[in-house]
Amino acid sequence: METVTLNHTAALARLGHALSDETRARILLVLREGPAYPGDMAEALGVSRQVMSNQLACLRGCGLVQGEPDGRRTRYTLTDAHLGPALGDLLELVLRVDPACCSDEGCTCS
């Protein structure tokens, strides 16, 4: 068994913090599909540009997303190629453990 260090704990806590907010989780799922611009994500997710900016700042602080200048705009991506598939695996696991959690009848995990 691998020794669990404070760095491991901190890394999981950062991921948990990032996923604890629905908007941040939705941003990560959008970015799992590919790079995106904040304005486009704000519109797609139905949030203000200020909310998007704040949530992207949090995700940058957690080390999960990065902004890349693209002319006058900034394009966001996940910081690591492994993160997208890992988020997909985590989502699949959550839905296997509790398929009713996020059904159309409403989330029972709140």
UniProtKB/TrEMBL annotation:
Cited InterPro entries: ArsR-like_HTH, HTH_ArsR_DNA-bd_dom, HTH_Metal-responsive_Reg, WH-like_DNA-bd_sf, WH_DNA-bd_sf
Family matches, as Pfam families: HTH_5 (PF01022)
GO MF annotation: an example: DNA-binding transcription factor activity
Domain HTH arsR-type: 4-98
Top-level taxon: Bacteria
Signal peptide extent: none
Coiled-coil ranges (or none): none
GO biological process, one term: response to lead ion
SMART domains, A to Z: HTH_ARSR
Protein name as it appears in the record: Metalloregulator ArsR/SmtB family transcription factor
Species this protein is from: Sanguibacter biliveldensis
Taxonomic lineage from the root: Bacteria, Bacillati, Actinomycetota, Actinomycetes, Micrococcales
